[in-house]
Design a protein that fits this description.
Cytochrome Bc1 Complex, Chain A, domain 1, seven-stranded mixed sheet, 2 domains, 463 residues, 15 helices, globular, alpha+beta, six-stranded mixed sheet, 39% helix
């Protein structure tokens, strides 16, 4: 058995010229061709979201498991990502690599990715070929083989991925050091790829324990967007996933990051072409009324060549090759609002850091003008709506919101963005961008072969 709810909304009005959208507040914000979202919950706890779109004869299917590096601990990092790789290594029914070969024969595309809050498996295929995909996904939800030989082979793949992303990538290494400093107790400090010593020692027993803890229907959401009839699809899904029993409730993540009371700094010296300044401040996420002012502020400061940081540091002061930042609205737990500056080789890093601080202080001192604020809102609106024209992007958006709390937040996104005022922007800048809450990481290039261990204030260099 399962319960079903249907949520209808009006279609979007046509996009206006120049990429600006003029839909009024209160309208359901859906791409043209989208149908209602049908949601269902099976008795075993599996959440299902279906949105019909019959403009093409394809469907995107995603399964998101509520597990990522957020659930890990130091010393056992990388479990979620390693298991993601092993999910393609076969079951008793489908042998090693059978999943990818079958999807290829069906003419589909498949992939997977691990984040801090969830692990996602997705496939796009012709709608009349969805049945074998459902068979595959239901089978590997609980019947993964985890062959030791496959594990050792995949370990080398994961280790090389680790080298490419972080060990041999100076900016990746800088981001890891920044996270380890910005979070002192929350597992967001743990890199999703895992640390190399942990990857080297993970065993089949470790991965089996992780699989048996998190890969159950009551810790998953299945999303289908495309050329499907919701009622028919739900019956197909129920027939395959319904017999899988509910699993134990996964252990909650209870770590809470303590309030920061002083600036933190780290210098990373690695072979690199250009210096990089990375700065961040702890901020709230989507449940907070401050979340949407922060979302607009992120775009205003750091999105595109018309943004403040790009205009002032790249075009104006000619200090940087690039400048920008990021804000994670939909993180499950509060995150860090980040800025970065890629410094030109002939410019002093300290000067670039001061210029960034000046732009942050300028925002604290005076609210943005209405034209600048409206431009940022228009950017957000156009990007959101054009992005949702993709079936895959629409499934991802539903999944992100569902993981963060509820998929219904998707339709509230643009009205909340529109409601942000210039005074809101200044208020959140004053509240959160304060020196005692700042974390700074600096990448200092060194010549090839002259790498020096990362140093933090008060940290001894090992001999």
């Amino acid at each position: 058995m399962y319960t079903v709810a249907v949520h209808r909304g009006r279609a979007l009005l046509p996009l206006l010229c120049a990429g600006l959208v003029g839909v009024g507040p209160g309208l359901a914000l859906r791409p043209a061709g989208a149908g209602e979202v049908v949601e269902a919950t099976l008795d075993n706890g599996l959440r299902v979201l279906v949105e019909a779109d019959h403009r093409s004869s394809t469907v995107t299917l995603q399964i998101r498991y509520g597990v990522g590096s957020r659930n890990e601990t130091e010393g056992r990092s990388g479990l979620s990502h390693f298991l993601e790789h092993m999910m393609f290594k076969g079951t008793a029914r489908y042998g090693p690599r059978a999943y990818s070969r079958l999807i290829e024969r069906l003419g589909g595309e498949e992939n997977a990715y691990t984040g801090r809050d969830a692990t996602t498996y997705h496939v796009t295929v012709a709608a009349d070929r969805i049945d074998p995909v459902l068979d595959l996904e239901a089978d590997r939800m609980r019947n993964l083989t985890l062959d030791p030989k496959e594990l050792e082979s995949e370990r080398q793949v994961v280790m090389e991925e680790r080298r490419t992303r972080a060990d041999d990538d100076p900016v990746g290494a800088l981001a890891e050091e920044f996270a380890r400093l910005a979070f002192v107790s929350h597992p967001y400090r743990i890199p999703t790829i895992g640390l190399m010593p942990d990857i080297e020692r993970l065993t089949v027993a470790d991965l089996r324990g992780w699989y048996d803890t998190y890969y159950w229907p009551n810790n998953a959401v299945l999303i289908a967007v495309g050329d499907v009839e919701p009622a028919v699809f739900l019956e197909k899904m129920r027939a395959r996933f319904g017999p899988i029993p509910r699993g134990p409730t996964p252990p909650p993540v209870t770590a809470v990051e303590p309030e920061q009371h002083g600036e933190r700094r780290v210098t990373v010296k690695k072979e690199a072409q250009l210096p990089v300044v990375y700065v961040g401040y702890p901020v709230p996420n989507h449940p907070s009324p401050d979340a949407y002012p922060l979302e607009v502020l992120s775009t205003l400061l750091s999105t595109g060549r018309a943004s403040r940081l790009y205009q002032r540091l790249v075009y104006g002061a000619r200090l940087a090759l690039d400048a920008g930042g990021d804000y994670s609205l939909l993180s499950v737990d509060p995150d860090v609002f980040t800025f970065y500056v890629t410094v030109l080789p002939e410019k002093p890093v300290a000067e670039a850091e001061r210029a960034l601080a000046l732009e942050i202080e300028r925002l604290r001192a005076e609210p943005p003008g209405q034209e600048e604020l409206q431009r940022a809102k228009n950017q957000i609106e156009a990007s959101f709506l054009f992005g949702q024209d993709s079936l895959s992007a629409r499934a991802s958006t539903l999944g992100l919101y569902e993981t963060a709390g509820s998929w219904r937040g998707r339709d509230a996104y643009l009205p909340r963005v529109r409601a942000v005022t210039a005074e809101d922007i200044q208020r959140v800048a004053r509240q959160y961008f304060v020196d005692t809450h700042k974390t700074t990481a600096i990448l200092v290039p060194v010549p090839p072969g002259a790498q020096i261990p990362t140093e933090r204030p008060g940290q001894r260099r090992s001999r």
